[in-house]
Amino acid sequence: MLHWNEIRTAATVAKLGTVTAAAEALNVHRATITRHIDTLEGMLGAKLFQRNRRGFITTDLGLRLLQIAEASDEQFEQLHRHAKSQSAIIEGDFIITSIAQMAEHIFPVIAEFSRRHPRIRTQFLATQDLAKLEYGEAHIALRVGKKPQDPDNIVRPAGKMEMGLYASPSYRDRFGLPTCIEDFGHHRFIASNAADPRAPFLHWLAANVPAASIIMTSNDIPALSEAVLCGIGIGFVPKMAALRHAGLIEVLPHLPAWDVDIWLVSHVDINRTPKVRAFLDLMAEPASGWPFR
After folding, report:
1. DSSP the chain
2. Which residues form the HTH lysR-type domain (predicted)?
3. For the segment 151-193, what is each residue's pLDDT rounded down to a tens digit?
4. Assigned domain for 132 exists
5. What is the pLDDT of residues 30-54, one digit of tens each?
6. CATH of the domain at 24
7. Which residues span the domain enclosing 254?
């Protein structure tokens, strides 16, 4: 609303009766009160107060302004009460974006979130692309690798995904297994063909495996794990997934440098909204079903 400060000032003078009382109530200088009234009267082209030696006498127009200001205050208070009541309701669309391989891990959390808030309608967007949270493309982004650095986003750690370097029994039977990194040049490996892979284990692989030993590449992490299971070559598999395939052989002892950091990202403008807060709080609960800590 244009000139709301000036309207509030004039209404306070009309209500309290004196400039001094209005200045005290609004915690401003008397000169500010006079300036606001002059500005408002100049805009209206009419007098709100008659000045005399006893002070300011409210005109009919000034009394009308007081009525409008009080009605506006009441309407805004109703709006505020409505907003507070709405903030307690968790409903509507809730969008989560992540790489596809996180689906099996985040879906138990989504199931619990839906159970607690049945009026929520969740969208899960599986993509390698980074959603533009500032444009409302998602409420929550689940990201892996290096910590996101966008200053407009709130970033929270969500655990680590442990990775292991594995080979299948069929690979071992055909080619044997390396006993150390120096043996890698005599073996067959599976790697990413992404120009700038975000996962630390892929950087480690690129730094330690000769290019000539890489016999298959893919831009899809689950495809790399599947290739290991099929015996095409040696490669990285999440340890949780490896536990479901008892025959997999760990080629080297686990290195913490391989593990993937997981981050929960939300935009600063919606971070405190009820939907986002409820989901983030749930993620922190052991009962949520989220396996990474």
Report:
1. -TTHHHHHHHHHHHHHSSHHHHHHHHT--HHHHHHHHHHHHHHHTS-SEEEETTEEEE-HHHHHHHHHHHHHHHHHHHHHHHHHHHHT---EEEEEEE-GGGHHHHHHHHHHHHHH-TTEEEEEEE-SSPP-GGGTS-SEEEEESSPP--TTEEEEEEEEE-EEEEE-HHHHHHH---SSGGGGGGS-EEEE--SS---HHHHHHHHHS-GGGEEEEES-HHHHHHHHHTTS-BEEEEHHHHTT-TT-EE-S---GGG-EEEEEEEETTTTTSHHHHHHHHHHTSGGG-----
2. 1-59
3. 899 999 999 999 999 999 999 999 999 999 999 999 999 998 8
4. yes
5. 999 999 999 998 988 999 998 877 7
6. 1.10.10.10
7. 163-258
